[in-house]
# Entry
Amino acid sequence: MAVFARLMAAEGLKFRHSVAARMVWILPVIFLVLEFLVFERPFLGLSTLTPKVQATLDTLQLKMVLALWGGFLHPLMLALLPALLFRPEHRFKTWRHLHAMPTPRRGIFLAKAAFALLLVAGVLALVGLLLWIERTALGMMNPQLALPFHGLQMAKLLGWLWLSSLPLLATYLWVSDRINSLAVPVVLGLVGLLLTIALAGQELPQPWRRDLIPWVLPYAAAERVVHSGLAQQEAHLAGTPFQPEPDVLRLPSGKKVRTQQSAPDEVVFPPPPPTPFWLLGGFSAGAGLLLLVLGWVDAGRCRS
# Structure
């Protein structure tokens, strides 16, 4: 235990002077700035709020955490963070020196994995704190915007983002330990993001086959927290323009024909129930632990 504590302390010292230390606070700040300028700022000039506008503003932060953070910045952070944590050892070729010391090889990987898990949790907590500060500041600038901050639901949303990210984070840790390149996890992250954009919002007879893909899993679990309506899943923000329009039939020529019916399609043909929380949580914990163990075992190899 004392050896592991010293390894964690060493990771903390390396982290203080690394690019990862700047990334873990820059990304939440970028998210807050974009969320405020694009979505919150237009409400500042309103003297009165209609019930519809108030309902929109009340759940806006939760939806933006899902769409903007969970849909774009969170996958980027998961791809970059493990690679940046392994960068000092790869960049300065210190593996032989570290393995010559009385320190277990697998202990280094375990310390980095634990440090990455703590950093992801800290970043998500920072996102929640910044949103609380924003909601409080908006209420001070315009009393009409003094709406309650949904702390419990926000904590649930961020907690599911952390839990459902375990398989993907474990995969990136294993890849970053094996490969000395930032490009590989970034490419994997971009491919996963495109996969999420393409699959999110698709009505499937067995939605768990989509939701349990590690790259799709964080968005799918977070979407279940803020989900509303009869649809099986809300589409990804980037994939919304490509979703079928309700009561609109697109002909082979590309022309759109609006149809008339007494009830929407999701009422006439209700979709299958979404993936249950117990399956999302159980798979996230089990797959994340399995991949971490495999990466931990592989970390004991002899490095050339």
User: Anything to note?
Assistant: Residues 40 and 57 are 8 Å apart (CA to CA). The mean pLDDT is 86. The longest helix spans residues 105-141.
